[in-house]
Amino acid sequence: MVLHGYWRSGTSYRTRIALNIKGLAYRQEPVDLREGEQKSASYLALNPQGLVPALECDDGILTQSSAIIEWLDERYPEPALFPTGGAERAKVRAMAMTVACDIHPLNNLRILKYLRRELEVDQQGVDAWAGTWIAAGFDALEATIGQHGGRFAYGDTLTAVDCHLVPQVYSAERFNVDCTRWPRLMQAVENARGEPPVAAAHPDNQPDAD
Amino acid sequence: MVLHGYWRSGTSYRTRIALNIKGLAYRQEPVDLREGEQKSASYLALNPQGLVPALECDDGILTQSSAIIEWLDERYPEPALFPTGGAERAKVRAMAMTVACDIHPLNNLRILKYLRRELEVDQQGVDAWAGTWIAAGFDALEATIGQHGGRFAYGDTLTAVDCHLVPQVYSAERFNVDCTRWPRLMQAVENARGEPPVAAAHPDNQPDAD
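ok -> C-alpha cells follow
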C-alpha cells in the first residue's frame, strides 16, 4: 500500500495510526501541503478533491481518512478499531466524528489561509478561532471519555477514537491551546501516545518531517 | 424512536432521510436552534455536545448524524444505505464524508454566528465563505458522481451519499449558490428529492417548520 500524505496533516497522522495498529506495511509518498503539491496535476489525478491523504491499495485509491479507517477495519478485522456491539460501535463512531466533523475541518490549512488572506484575521485571531472549536469538542469528549474511557479514550484497547484524538491534540498543542483543562482526555492521549504503533505515526517520525 | 432535531438543520435532515428510507417510525422532538434550545440543560443532558440531532432508541441516545446512519444500516440492514463490496463501501463513505467533514461543518449556525459576531463579516462575506467550501466539495463530488453515479449519487439506489447530499444542496440554495454549475450532481439530487422517503424528510414538511 502507498499512503500519500503529509507529515503534519492530522488526517494523514490518523491514517498512519490505524495502519500501524493493524500492523500493515505501507510506503509513504509525501505531498508537501506548504508547496501546494496537493493541487498538482499528478495528485489531483489520484484525488480530485486535492486533499490528503489518499491510500493506494488493491481496492483502488481510497480517500477521506475516516472512511479509510472504516475500510481498514472491515478488510483487516484484527485488532479491531471498533467494538462489536451496536451501541458501543455507535458511541465510538460518534466520538471519532466529533473530531472528524466538528473540530478538525475548521482548523485545517485551507481554512487558516482563508481566515488570514480573505478575512485578514491576525495570528491571535486565528488562535482564538481554532481554540474555540477545539475547546467545544474537547469539552464534550472530556465528558464522554469520563463515561466510556479506560486506559484509552474508549475502553482499554486502542480504537478509532484514539486514531482521531491523538492527532487532534497534536494540532491543539500547535495552536497553543492549554490541554490541561481536559485531564481525562489527556490521560487517554498520553497512554495512547506511549503505544508503539501510535508513537511510530507521530509527525516527527515521518520521512518528510522538517 | 425519538429524533431530537431542528427542521432546517442539515444533520437532522440527513437523519430523517435515512430513517425514512429504512421505513422506521419515529417521533420528532423539536430543538429550536434559533432560540438556543440546544444549550438548554434538558438538551445537554441528552447530548453534552449541544448539537442536533440526537436519536433516542433502544441502544440509548445516539449522536452525530453520520454515526447514526451507520448504526441504522447495521441495525436495519434493508434497504441498504451502503453497498456490500469493500471498494464500493469505501467510495460511498468517502463521498458522504466529503459533505460531512469538508462542507457542512464550515457553514453551520455556530460558525456563521462566529463569523458575524467575532470577525464582523458581513452577509456578502458570509455567503462568499459558505460558497467557497460548497464549491470545493461539489466540484469534487461532480467528478465522483460522473464516475459512480446512476439514477442517484452512487448507482441506482439511494445510499448514504444521498442522505448527506440532498440536505447540503438545500443549504447551498439558501446561501444563493448557483448549483447549475454541477449538473450531474443536481440531476442525482433531483432524482433523490422525487423519492417519497426523501421528500417526506424535507424541512418544510416537518412539524416545527415556520
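Chain A has a mean pLDDT of 97.
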